[in-house]
Amino acid sequence: MYRVQFDEIGKASDQVYLKKVDNINAINENEVLIEVICFPINPADILLVEGKYANKPKLPSLMGAECIAKVKKIGNNIRKFKLGDIVLPLVRDNWVEEKIVTENEIIKLPNNIDVEQACMLKVNPATAYLMLNNYVKVKQGDFIIQNASNSSVGNYVIQLAKLYDINTINLVRRKEVISTLKDYGANYVFKLNLNQKEESFIKSSNPKLFIDAVAGEHVNTIASLLTDNSTIINYGLLSGENIQLDPHNTIFKNIILKGFWLSLWLNKMSIEEKNKLYSYLSELIIKKVLFTKVEKVFHINNIKEAIGAASDFNRDGKILVTTSKA
Q1: Contact in structure between 41 and 321 (CB atoms under 8 Å)
Q2: Alpha helices, DSSP H only, in 136-185?
Q3: Within its chain, how far is the Cα of 95 from the centroid?
Q4: pTM of the predicted model as reported, rounded to 2 decimal places
Q5: Alpha carbons 9 and 4: distance in angstroms, whole number
Q6: Fewest beta carbons less than 10 Å away: which of 4, 130, 146, 191?
Q7: Helix, strand or coil for residue 267?
Q8: pLDDT tens digits, one per residue of 272-318
């Protein structure tokens, strides 16, 4: 079988390659063998190869934050899963054709779920849901603001906010994505560089939550428009700059800055809590409340080409990779 790995830090499309390894023929009584169906290429996957993610990888390194898979073989002590079940692995290193996991490392999903949408379930929908529901009590009719609104997380925030009747103010770099975001349910979409009229509107809407993926001086600009006692959640560093926040905003407006990393959340959640979270989100995918546009699906044999496509920030949708032998 094949797995994707890299031996050196560098440009992802140069360093990542397919490695042929022995097939997995045997598992023990407490293990589950799963067959990966497809996986998305996320920015964090590329950052890992570039050495810019949270932890430096031990080389050579496997990769892949998420995927969707099917149960191929179960150990004698396995009771929660059966052959053919569709499962979501909670562990990393998922860019492989097959892998061994334990019962507590996978979540069973409904068999009628769209596997392309489900392969993106673990990271971005959960990130959007947890940021929206666990920091500030946002009620129907309230306003929130976010940047990187055309990202996958941004799209899920818009879709969830629409479901909860929360108004979203969405900041983007490119005006050509504005109509697409409004189709998703965005209430207001502005360019990142706000004019005076837009700033006045944001101030008057009293947003109490700002979801930030950009960092840099932009954070302070938006903080000055937030209502008192607001919260900023930072989950990205697209600007490549440190967060700037004026003491006036933290002292006199009592604005709180929090960081979000999904791995920390999942580490502190029980398996029951994880099942509840992903059961809820998977039902929203089945009902088509949550979805992400897919630009192209590559075969794992073309992993370098797939990574090149995923690195293009002007693409219109996610890049997925299938391991299908057909």
Answers
A1: yes
A2: 152-163, 178-184
A3: 16
A4: 0.94
A5: 14
A6: 191
A7: helix
A8: 999 999 999 999 999 999 999 999 999 999 999 999 999 987 788 89
